Amino acid sequence: MSNSHGFLADVTNMFNDAAEILALEEGLAEKIAVCNTTLTTRFGVRLRGKMYTFEGWRAVHSNHPSPAKGGIRFAPYANHEEVEALAALMSYKCALMDLPFGGSKGALKVDPNDWAPHEMERITRRFAQELARHEFLSPSQNVPAPDVGTNETTMIWIADEYRRMKSHDINANACVTGKPLAMGGIEGRIEATGRGVQYAIQAFFQTPEDVAKIGMDESLEGRTVVVQGLGNVGYHAAKFLSEESGCKIIAVVERDGSIRNPDGLDIEALRKHMTETGGVSGFEGGEFDSGSALSDACDILIPAALESAIHDGNAHEIKAKLIVEAANGPVTYAANTILRERGVVIIPDLYANAGGVTVSYFEWVKNLTHIPFGLMERRRDEEGSRMLARQIENMTGCHFPAESAEPFLSGAREIDLVRSGLDEKMRSAYGEMSRLWNASEDIPDLRTAAYIIAVKRIAEIYRALGIG
Ligand code: NAD
Q: Is it the case that residue 306 has pLDDT exceeding 90?
């Protein structure tokens, strides 16, 4: 499993590279790098006729601005250092994407597969009580979201527990994001991180000077892709890239091995097979073996499982020209150096998987305003488009073509606005990173450019507050 000590050191090393180029004044770099507060909680839950003790954490890396934002993962290997590293990444991610959040992350040391749903509900509700009691859960201070091992049901349990404890808080629903639609969620949140990965890859391929660095042209059509981890993020990224962008997913690496198909895997069918069987072996639409396809020849490699998947032991074998870090920290600091020297371009995690927190930001704003996006303007926009279409028809004597009438005439739905907002955020952040990377020889890669933008923004806030 993940080497969390190495992971925290890797995040610190990546931060240090940027801080050195920025030449921050003495003491400020250290203030930014360290986690402000980490709660460790151990609580008991009576289950199956006896008391079980669970251990969990919530780290706040930075809370300028507030609230601090970041997922909660449920995993048997979770630990304090991993949570702090992930919280730091969240601070840099939110700063890079220019979102008004500090960085946080939480984890509970538990394997959700060991417990029935009603038992997980009791465990989660107790964890939520601890977080709220210690001010590590609230719409204004700390707002969790789903991550590995948690989902929208987990978020409802947490939100409901918070609401019971703070019944006078009219914004209680905004204490978590990633909720189901019926409970104050937002269209497009479940797909958001994978959708953001697709937008990140599109932004890269629309930037000629960056695509030239890996010797490709600007078309995504027919690009071969290997994905590690067909969970929430990997599945959505693979689905959108294959169904909409013309890519071929030639291999998926999962816990039980790899499934390959040089003509492209049917991602929907594979996901259905995984839901039914728990793995990729036995899937009839490809060739299975128990090894790893991470080093298969392909254009784009998308690690979307867990941290440190690509390390100094296997970085030399990677054949992809472009790695897109859909997971958090999938390439170690040492592997990053090896790959860069080999001319591989890496789209870094703090940008590539920022779609989730970006759409979480939209959900949080929707909850605080208590009104769905597009409600006030949709019919008015439709009427405006209809009037324009009528004028064009009158002036030209031609009818508006039926196939373009519907998309032109109908006002934007919430999902359209969410995707448009996400695309805008992903494109503008990519443009900033790319311009910085191409502007200076001192900036060796996109990751360093991303960290520089993020750290500069955080440093400015600390200086303005007088902490610097
Ligand atoms: P998930 O639990 O839904 O999916 C993880 C997938 O990886 C599962 O299918 C699992 O079987 C597979 N996996 C686990 N270990 C593996 C291994 N050793 N080899 C191959 N496959 C393995 O989790 P997720 O929400 O998709 O998150 C994946 C990554 O993306 C994590 O690093 C997470 O922090 C990051 N992330 C998630 C979100 C989000 O919105 N869910 C947002 C940002 C970042």
A: no
Written as six digits, the tokens of 21 are 């180029």
Q: In the predicted model, what is the mean pLDDT of the chain?
A: 95
Q: How far apart are CA 300 and CA 352, in angstroms?
A: 13
Which residue CA neighbors atom 1 of ligand 1 most closely? Answer: 231
Whether residue 67 has a cis bond before it, omega within 30° of 0: yes
316 C-alpha to ligand 1 centroid (Å)? 24
Question: What does the alpha-carbon distance between residue 302 and residue 323 come to, in Å, rounded to a whole number?
Answer: 6
Here the tokens at position 283 are 């899937």
Q: In sequence order, what are the residues at sequence separation of 6 or more whose Cβ sits closer than 8 angstroms to the Cβ of residue 238?
A: 194, 225, 227, 230, 249, 252, 265, 267, 302
The pLDDT value given to residue 467: 66
Cβ proximity of 458 and 62 under 8 Å: yes
Which is the closest atom of ligand 1 to the Cα of 309? 18
Task: Dig out the tokens for 132 from the structure.
Answer: 């709220």
Atom of ligand 1 nearest to the CA of 279: 11
Nearest atom (ligand 1) to Cα of 326: 30
Q: What is the pLDDT of residue 1?
A: 42
Q: Output 368-376 pairs: Cβ under 8 A, ≥24 positions apart.
A: 368/139, 368/171, 368/174, 372/414, 373/186, 373/414, 373/417, 373/418, 374/411, 374/412, 374/413, 374/414, 374/416, 374/417
Residues in the chain: 468
Residue nearest atom 37 in ligand 1 by C-alpha distance: 147
Secondary structure (DSSP) of 182-230: GGT--TTTTTHHHHHHHHHHHHHHT-HHHHHHTT--S--TT-EEEEE--
3-state secondary structure at position 113? helix
pLDDT at residue 111 in the model: 97
Q: SS3 for 176?
A: coil
What residues are annotated to the active site? 105
Position 38 scores a pLDDT of 97
Q: What are phi and psi of 75, to 5 degrees?
A: -155, 145
Helix/strand number for the chain, H first, E second? 16, 12
Protein residue with least CA distance to atom 32, ligand 1 = 327
